[in-house]
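Translate structure to sequence.
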C-alpha cells in the first residue's frame, strides 16, 4: 500500500444513513421479514449435560391443532456434512451439552410452537458430565494452534532464569469470567425452501456475513451456492456471536425444508442464546514479570488455561497480545485447553486481546507498585522498537503518544493518593493499554454501476450497528472523486459481489479496499463522464498487501473508580480512552464504536459473569434479569479521543479497524483504579463488592 486517499468525504462527521429507518422502525430485521403466511419454529433442547437420547415421543405435540412438523434425531433429514459437530443438528442421539438441540417444532404461531415443544417427551440415558475448568486438571492439552492461526506456544530466552536473577519478580494468577454476547436482536432466521424456484433456499438471517454464512450452510446441507441466497440488511448487534453461523441457522433451514413453500421463522429466546450462540471462554492466566529497578522488563510470560467444548475445539488466542506489547529479552506464552461437557465457545468482541490484556495489564500495575513507578512511565519504558516476536518494524505505533495524551486529558498527574477518601467514597485512578491487530481479508469484491446520475456500489458487506451503510459511501466517494451524496451503497445480500465477514475489525479495511480498486477500474474504463449502465468491479488487491510491517491499532484507557468505604459498592464516573487507529473514516460512527467498546469493557469489569452451575451443567443466570450488563445508570462520563494517525502501509484508506479495540484493557484499568482506591487487588473478574469488603476497614 502506498498512497492514502485524498480525504474529502472520509473524515466527515456524517449521520447514519440507516438511522431514520431504524428510529422509525421500518428497518426490517431477519425475523420481521415480510413473507406470506409464515410458520414458526421452536427448538427442543437437551435437558441432560451428557448422554444419549433413547426415545422421543412427539405424539402429544403433534396432536395439537396447528402443529405442522416435529423433527427429531430420527426424523430429521441427513445432512451432507457432519464434520462440524456444532452444526450437525439432529444427526445423532448423542448429547454433548445441556441445551443442545434435540428437536424442533414448527406450528402456525410462535406460541403454539413453543407450547408443542414443551410437549415433546425426550428420554435420555444420562452420563456423568464434567464441566469445571481448573488449572490442575490432568487432561489439559495443547491445541495444534490457537484461533486466527497463531502458534499455541512461543518462547524466547529463559524466563525462569530471568525471574530468579531479577531485582523484582512477580508471579500472579488472574482469571476472567465466562461472558455471553447479548446483542439486542436475538439470533433469528426467516427461511424459505421452494424447490421449484431458481434459488430454492432463501435465508433472511441475522449474520455478520451473508457470504460466509451461505458457504457454511451450503457445506452442511450439501447445496450449491447458486441454490442459496442469504439476505441481511440490518443487524441488531452481534459482537462476534453472528460472525459464524450457529446451530439455529441450520435448524431453521431444516425446518423450512420440511415444509416446502412455507416460510419458517425461528428466533432463539434469550435463554436459548446462552447455550446455542457461543460465548467467551473463562480464562485462567498465570503471568510472570521480571524487571530491574528502573522498570525495564527482563521477562514477560503468560500461561493460559481455558476451556472448549468436547464436541468442537475453539481455542481463544488469549496469550497472543503478550507476544507483541512490550520489549523483553525473555518471553513465553502458552495455551492449554480443557475439553468439557459445555456449549461451544465462540467469537466475542476482541477474542484473544480482550481477555489476554487483562492479566498482563494488571500485573504491570502491580509491578509499578512494587517499583514505586508511575504505571504510565513503566509502560513507556518497555516500548519495543520493533515487533518483539517477528522483528518486523511497526506500520505505525503510537502507544506512547496515546498514554501521554490520555494522561494529560485525564489529569493523571494530579491523581489522588492511594486510598484517597472523599466523604464515604474511596477514590482511585487506573490505566491500561489497548491493542488490536489491523487485518484485511483476502476475499471481497465490489461492483460500481452508474445509474440515473448516481454511482451505485454493491458488495455483500454487513452493518452490525457499526456504520457500514454510512462509511462505505464515504470511501467510494473519495475513491471515485465525487460527492458522497452521489454514491449509493447496497450491502447485506449474496446477490451482491462476495464480501468477507464483519469480524476481526476488518470490515471497512477489506470492503473499502475492494471499493477503491473498483473505483479505479471504473474511472479507467469510463473516465469522468460515464453513461447509464457503465459498470466495473474490483477485488481486494492482495498483491499490494504489505507484509513487511507489524500492523496494530493501539490505545490507552484511564479510569476513575469510587468505592463506597462501608458497602464496597463500585462506581466508575469517568472512562477516558485515547486511540491510534489510523485514519478515522467517520468520527461519529467511530466514537460510537470506541465508547461502545469501553462501556462493554466496564461491563466486563463490574457486571457481566455467566455463572456456571457445575451440578446442572448450565449457566444459572441465563437471562437479562440476572446476567447483568452495564446500563446507563452505571456509566458516567465516557470519552473517546484519537490521534491523527497516518499509516501508509495498512490499506488505501489508512484505516486500522475500530470495532474491537475499545473493549481491550478497560477491565484492567478498572481493577487498577479500584486497587488505588482501596488497596485491594482483585485478580478475578468481575470486581464485585464481596471481593472488596474484607479489605476495607
Ligand atoms: Mo468480532 S468477535 O471479530 O466479530
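Result:
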Amino acid at each position: 500500500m502506498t498512497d492514502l486517499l485524498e480525504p474529502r468525504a472520509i473524515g466527515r462527521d456524517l449521520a447514519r444513513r440507516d438511522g431514520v429507518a431504524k428510529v422509525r422502525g421500518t428497518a426490517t430485521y431477519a425475523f420481521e421479514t415480510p413473507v406470506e403466511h409464515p410458520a414458526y419454529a421452536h427448538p427442543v433442547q437437551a435437558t441432560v449435560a451428557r448422554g444419549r437420547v433413547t426415545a422421543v415421543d412427539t405424539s402429544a405435540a403433534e396432536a395439537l391443532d396447528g402443529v405442522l412438523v416435529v423433527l427429531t434425531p430420527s426424523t430429521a433429514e441427513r445432512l451432507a456434512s457432519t464434520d462440524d459437530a456444532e452444526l450437525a443438528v439432529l444427526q445423532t442421539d448423542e448429547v454433548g451439552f445441556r441445551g443442545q438441540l434435540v428437536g424442533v417444532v414448527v406450528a402456525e404461531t410462535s406460541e403454539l410452537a413453543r407450547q408443542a415443544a414443551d410437549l415433546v417427551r425426550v428420554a435420555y440415558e444420562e452420563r456423568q458430565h464434567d464441566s469445571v475448568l481448573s488449572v490442575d486438571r490432568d487432561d489439559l492439552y495443547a491445541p495444534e494452534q490457537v484461533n486466527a492461526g497463531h502458534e499455541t506456544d512461543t518462547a524466547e530466552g529463559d524466563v525462569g532464569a530471568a525471574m530468579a536473577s531479577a531485582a523484582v519478580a512477580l508471579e500472579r494468577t488472574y482469571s476472567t469470567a465466562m461472558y455471553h454476547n447479548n446483542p439486542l436482536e436475538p439470533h433469528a432466521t426467516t427461511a424459505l425452501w421452494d424447490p421449484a424456484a431458481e434459488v430454492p433456499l432463501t435465508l433472511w438471517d441475522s449474520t455478520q456475513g451473508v457470504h460466509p454464512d451461505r458457504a457454511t450452510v451450503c457445506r452442511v446441507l450439501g447445496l450449491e451456492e447458486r441454490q442459496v441466497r442469504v439476505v441481511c440488511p440490518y443487524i441488531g448487534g452481534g459482537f462476534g456471536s453472528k460472525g459464524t453461523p450457529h446451530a439455529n441457522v441450520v435448524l431453521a433451514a431444516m425446518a423450512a425444508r420440511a415444509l416446502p413453500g412455507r416460510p419458517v421463522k425461528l428466533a432463539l429466546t434469550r435463554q436459548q442464546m446462552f447455550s446455542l450462540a457461543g460465548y467467551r471462554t473463562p480464562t485462567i492466566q498465570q503471568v510472570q514479570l521480571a524487571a530491574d529497578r528502573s522498570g525495564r522488563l527482563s521477562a514477560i510470560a503468560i500461561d493460559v488455561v481455558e476451556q472448549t467444548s468436547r464436541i468442537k475445539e475453539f481455542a481463544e488466542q488469549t496469550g497472543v497480545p503478550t507476544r507483541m506489547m512490550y520489549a523483553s529479552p525473555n518471553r513465553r506464552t502458552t495455551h492449554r485447553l480443557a475439553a468439557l461437557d459445555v456449549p461451544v465457545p465462540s467469537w466475542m468482541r476482541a477474542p484473544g486481546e480482550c481477555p489476554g490484556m487483562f492479566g498482563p495489564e494488571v500485573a504491570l500495575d502491580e509491578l509499578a507498585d512494587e517499583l514505586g513507578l508511575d504505571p504510565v512511565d513503566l509502560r513507556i519504558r518497555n516500548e519495543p522498537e520493533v515487533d518483539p516476536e517477528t522483528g518486523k518494524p511497526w506500520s505505525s505505533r503510537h502507544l506512547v503518544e496515546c498514554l501521554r495524551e490520555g494522561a494529560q486529558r485525564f489529569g493523571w498527574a494530579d491523581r489522588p493518593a492511594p486510598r484517597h477518601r472523599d466523604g464515604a467514597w474511596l477514590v482511585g485512578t487506573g490505566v491500561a493499554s489497548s491493542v488490536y491487530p489491523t487485518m484485511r481479508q483476502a476475499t471481497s469484491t465490489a461492483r460500481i454501476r452508474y445509474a440515473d446520475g448516481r454511482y451505485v456500489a454493491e458488495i455483500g458487506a454487513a452493518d452490525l450497528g457499526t456504520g457500514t451503510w454510512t462509511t462505505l459511501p464515504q470511501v467510494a466517494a473519495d475513491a471515485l472523486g465525487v460527492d458522497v451524496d452521489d454514491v449509493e451503497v447496497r450491502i447485506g445480500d449474496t446477490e451482491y459481489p462476495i464480501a468477507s465477514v464483519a469480524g476481526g475489525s476488518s470490515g471497512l479495511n477489506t470492503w473499502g479496499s475492494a471499493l477503491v480498486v473498483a473505483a479505479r477500474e471504473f474511472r479507467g474504463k469510463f473516465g469522468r463522464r460515464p453513461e447509464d449502465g457503465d459498470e466495473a468491479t474490483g477485488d481486494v488487491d492482495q498483491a499490494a498487501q504489505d507484509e513487511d510491517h507489524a500492523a496494530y491499532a493501539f490505545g490507552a484507557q484511564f479510569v476513575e473508580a469510587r468505592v463506597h468505604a462501608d458497602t464496597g459498592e463500585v462506581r466508575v464516573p469517568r472512562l477516558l480512552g485515547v486511540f491510534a487507529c489510523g485514519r478515522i473514516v467517520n468520527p461519529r460512527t467511530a466514537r460510537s464504536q470506541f465508547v461502545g467498546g469501553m462501556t462493554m469493557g466496564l461491563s466486563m469489569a463490574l457486571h457481566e459473569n455467566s455463572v456456571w452451575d457445575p451440578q446442572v451443567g448450565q449457566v444459572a443466570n441465563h437471562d437479562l434479569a440476572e446476567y447483568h450488563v452495564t446500563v446507563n445508570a452505571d456509566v458516567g462520563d465516557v470519552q473517546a479521543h484519537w490521534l491523527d494517525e497516518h499509516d501508509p502501509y495498512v490499506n488505501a484508506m489508512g484505516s486500522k479497524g475500530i470495532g474491537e479495540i475499545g473493549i481491550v484493557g478497560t477491565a484492567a484499568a478498572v481493577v487498577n483504579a479500584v486497587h488505588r482506591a482501596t488497596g485491594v487487588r482483585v485478580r478475578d473478574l468481575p470486581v464485585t463488592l464481596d471481593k472488596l469488603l474484607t479489605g476495607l476497614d
